[in-house]
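Known limitations

Structure tokens in this collection are predictions and should be treated as such. Users comparing against experimental data should check residue numbering before alignment. To illustrate the layout, the record for Mechanosensitive ion channel is reproduced below. The input appears on top and the generated tokens appear beneath it.
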Amino acid sequence: MRALFLLAIFVFALLANETAAQTEPPKLSEGDQKIKIKEIDAKLANNIWAREYANYMLYTKLERELALAKEQANKGTTDLELENQIKRLSAQLDALKDFAKSPFVTLLVPPNIEASPQITNPLALFGGFSYLKSLNQTKESYENLLKEIQIASKTLKEKKELLSDEAQIAELEAQISEFEIASVTANTTFSIFSKKIDESIAEINAKITAQIKHSFVILGSILSVFLIGIVAKFSIHHYMKDNQKFYTINKFINITGFIIIVFILLFAYIENVNYLITILGFASAGLAIAMKDMFMSLLGWSVILAGGSFHVGDRIKVRYENGDLVGDIIDISLLRMTLYEDITLTTYKQNRRSGRIIFIPNNYIFTATIANYTHSGMKTVWDGIDIAITFDSNHKKAVYIVKSIVRHYSKGFTDVAKTQMNKLRDQYSIKNTNVEPRIYTFLEPHAIVVSAWYKTNSYATLALRSNISADIIEAFNKENDIKIAYPRQTLYLGRDKGPLPSDEAWEQNS
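Generated tokens:
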């Protein structure tokens, strides 16, 4: 039994030695150690902390050497070689002056965290996301920088295990000690810095979230205004068949919606609304003086919409600088009415131009005379033709012919005018509602004038005037006792003053 016990102890000891031999790293040869040390030195050269610390140690060493050289120079043992050494050391120290302090003093100081930006509108969200990205990058960069300390410390320990020189080992132990102290300090610093970064991230995230919610509320309000406008337009268009009135209402809804949206944006993104109102008050007072015409046009636009005196599609005449402009309203904006000039009696007699787009400021409704040919659904106007006949013509027959022709051509417009006048009497106090053609006879110095007045289409007065005129001329030419008069002069040459010839004699001589 005792022999078996001793044998078991021997086997156990043998196995323990083999296990220890397996766990202990195999010893490297001298050549392999040098290669391993070079690899470690190359790794340390790429480590920012080790590189900065090496420069700091070099600066410290040169500083000691310079102090020693100056001390020898102060003792009176200066020579040319010592002076050159002092100059060389001074130059090297000047080149390495950025490494005069320990790298742990500067590298362990965390970067400053800028104050989070104010996010008061949707565009500021881009700045908020940029700031958030910058914080994360700063935190990650500083964390990676501090991890380099642990890598450097571990690498120095590996190098220490390969060294056999006691002096080098002692120097590395001093470096390792400083790196470990710096690592502890770095962890504490990073913990504080990380909390500040997290607080800033939480703060900016809260601002971004609040602004996104606020923007969705504003967007929802704007969409609501659009939807209400669309529903209102659809409902009005469904029950209102008059396209001209619907155009005006549609324009009013669009402008009202735009104003509401502007106020929503102003009150949503301007912090001190009272301050804005005060500024706008002073600004509007100055603008009201400087831009009087524009404000009067805005007021005119509101009067036009509220009063209903003018609508898109109406034909109007505007007295402008002693001239008349006649056209159809094709648009009514905030500042002006836009007219399309048609061929009318005015363009025929005065302008000799037509087809132009004319812009009439809305403030003209206060300062100029504007005639509406189609107000309140009226589609007809009175038009007149004057026909001059000679004094010896049968004027009664001429009046009868003119009246027959005028009644024939204007009958349809007369019937329409009767219906329209009955509707207009509900709105205005109109005494004379007679719309039948009217024929007048006037005695003028040069002829008898037959003046015919009739109802015609407001948009096509010249066409009916042309047809009636052509038929009257043709009818008069068929009658022997009716002659159209025209301006003429009779000249008598000679000294004898006899009785003036009669018209018949003048006509025979001519």
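For this record: The first strand starts at residue 315 and ends at 320. The chain has a mean pLDDT of 78. Please report discrepancies through the issue tracker.
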